[in-house]
Design a protein that fits this description.
Blueprint: E1 7-12, H1 21-39, H2 44-49, E2 51-55, H3 71-86, H4 96-100, H5 108-118, H6 122-129, H7 131-137, H8 143-160, E3 164-170, H9 173-188, E4 197-201, H10 208-211, E5 231-237, H11 253-257, E6 263-269, E7 274-275, E8 278-279, H12 284-288, H13 291-301
Parallel strand pairs: 1-2, 1-3, 3-4, 4-5, 5-6
Antiparallel strand pairs: 7-8
Helix pairs in contact: 1-3, 1-13, 5-6, 6-7, 8-9
Length: 302
């Protein structure tokens, strides 16, 4: 397959302590590449040629890093986890039976989030487990606007060039991406250029407590939603408490009914990442290297 310089991948990372931008971006790029190398090696030339850009904002969230955070240790552990995932040589090595055998696997956090939502405490639970997201919504210094401006300016430039665009967002990054896509749709664009595909990984967008605070939530009709997407694929892992509500099709079907988007699909997977000796189903590398992600990425590259 011939490489195309018109392919552009935009990464938006999630909550939690992160290594520096260059290191994190490299890990994301490597995770996707290892998945393609395993499942779709014929697409590697196109993947390597694609432009890749990470929207990075962890520098604004250091107050939420765990006490004693060591970037060196964190990065080493991330690389170790990725190496273990890469050692799974076939797509069939990512099934439920493999997940069930991981150390420290537990559904309790996801169950607690489900229970909180069912008794009307979803917003309180969201603030508890994702304080960074609450910080984003209550921004008083302008950092959140700077993050959105980074993403919107990059997307509009790519759309002006009629590029083939893939957005990959993890966790809280999917909220940043939604808000930016809404602004691109209703404040910054006037032509028919569109974004080919959006992939959300471990996203909280299925939760009522999050949807009620998204850009456009107070609008009516088509103005409630981004209108520049061709397709949205939402990937959620078993026991990932951040995406305890694992489906978005039911919540955003109005986008399909109004013909604002061509396709929205939900995918449930088993994230086999292990960090610090315990199962971590929310881990970004575990999502990025998963066969379902590789399949969707290969389709986009083609």
């Amino acid at each position: 397959m011939s490489a195309s310089s018109d392919n552009h991948i935009v990464f938006v990372h999630g909550r939690g302590a992160k290594p520096a931008k260059a290191a994190l971006s490299s890990l994301w790029e490597e995770s996707l590449r290892l998945g393609l190398e395993r499942d779709a090696p014929e697409t590697l030339e196109a993947y390597d040629a694609a432009d890749k850009h990470m929207v990075y904002y962890a520098d604004d969230l250091t107050d939420f890093f765990e006490e004693g955070f060591s970037e060196t240790l964190d990065l080493d552990n991330r690389r170790q986890s990725l190496a273990e995932l890469a050692a799974r040589a076939k797509p069939k090595d990512f099934r439920r039976k493999h997940y069930e055998s991981l150390p420290g696997k537990t559904p309790l956090k996801e169950f607690a989030m489900d229970l909180s939502a069912s008794v009307g405490l979803g917003r309180l639970a969201t603030r508890k487990v994702m304080p960074e997201l609450n910080h984003y919504w209550q921004d008083t210094t302008g950092w959140a606007e700077r993050v959105r401006a980074d993403l919107t300016s990059h997307l509009t430039a790519l759309m002006d060039a009629k590029s083939n665009i893939l957005i990959v967002s993890h966790c809280m990054g999917s909220v940043v991406a939604w808000d930016s896509l809404w602004r691109v749709s209703h404040e910054l664009r006037s032509d028919e250029s569109r974004i080919t595909r959006w992939m959300t990984l471990g996203s909280p967008l299925g939760a009522n407590s999050v949807r009620s605070r998204l850009a456009g939530a107070g609008e009516k009709g088509a103005r409630r939603y981004p209108t520049v997407l061709n397709a949205w694929h939402n990937i959620a892992a078993e026991d990932d408490y951040i995406c305890h509500d694992k489906t978005v099709v039911n919540d955003f079907r109005d986008m399909l009914d109004r013909h604002l988007i061509g396709d929205i699909r939900d995918h449930t997977i088993y994230n086999l990442a292990v960090r610090y000796g315990r199962s971590n189903p929310h881990n970004s590398a575990g999502y990025l290297i998963h066969p379902r992600t590789s399949e969707l990425l290969a389709q986009w590259l083609a």
